Every structure is written in structure tokens, then in C-alpha cells.
Amino acid sequence: MAKPRAARRPASVYALAGIRLFNGVTGLLMPTVLIRRLDPDRDLSPAAVYAFRLFGIRTILLGLDLLTNRGQRLQEDLREGVLIHGSDTATAALLGIRGQLPPRTAALTTLISAVNTALAASAADFGKRKGK
Asked: Among 53, 68, 78, 122, who pairs with 127 as Cys (CB 3.0-4.6 Å)?
């Protein structure tokens, strides 16, 4: 008996999953790479290493969810992605506004997070239309 074919996901879901997997693996296995990109002029903080590893594994799992979940669970994941990445965008922008990140770093992290937010919104919109 043949299995029913799974519905195809939009490119935005695959792009967002890829970004999450890349960032998650980097955060988990090579947190110093990400820390140095954010704050190249300071000594490494053990707390920053911990935080990147902590969120690294969570980010990997969120990426895998986009590739493996289906139906209502996938739609929930897509809606949650807008909140997750929107929060990241606001955080990056605030760090820049407050001068807690160098201007170039703040602009780049805000832009990257905004692209992720747009991908999440696009995917969530697709999921909403497919669910109707």
C-alpha cells in the first residue's frame, strides 16, 4: 500500500529551516565564532558561550520541526516562527539603538533577523492559505 504523498512546503520554510540549522549547529558546536562576530573586541564570556550552546540546540530542534512536522503542528510552528524571529529583530535593533553593539554589527544582525522574520511570515501565510 502506497503512502500518501506529503504536501510540499514553500521555499521560505526550507530557507528558514536551513538558517535555523546552520545557526543552531554553529551556536552549539562553535559558539566562539558567533560571539566574535557580535563582539570582536572583548574577551570571551563563559556566559555567552553557555547561552549560544543553550540556544543552539533549541534552534536545531526548531529547524528540524519545520522539516518534519505536518498539518496543524507545522502551522503552529510557522506562526510561532513569526514571534521568535520578530523578537530577535527587535532585540538586535534595540542593542544597536542603545549602543550595546557596534553600529555595523547591529545593522547586520537586525537585517538578518528581519529577513528571518519575513521568511517566517511568508511561510505562516502560506500555511494559513493551505489550511483553508
From this structure: 78
Provide the CA 115 distance to its chain's centre, in angstroms: 10
Q: Is 70 helix (H, G, I), strand (E, B) or coil?
A: coil
Neighbours of 64 (CB within 10 A): 14
| pTM attached to this predicted model | 0.83
Torsion angle, alpha carbons of 116, 82, 17, 33, to 10 = 50
CB count, 10 Å around CB of 105? 17
- pLDDT means per 10 residues, the chain with 132 residues, are 66 94 96 87 88 95 95 92 96 95 91 94 78 51
CA 61, CA 95: separation in Å to the nearest integer? 26
Amino acid identity of 21? Answer: L
Place of cell 505536518: 70
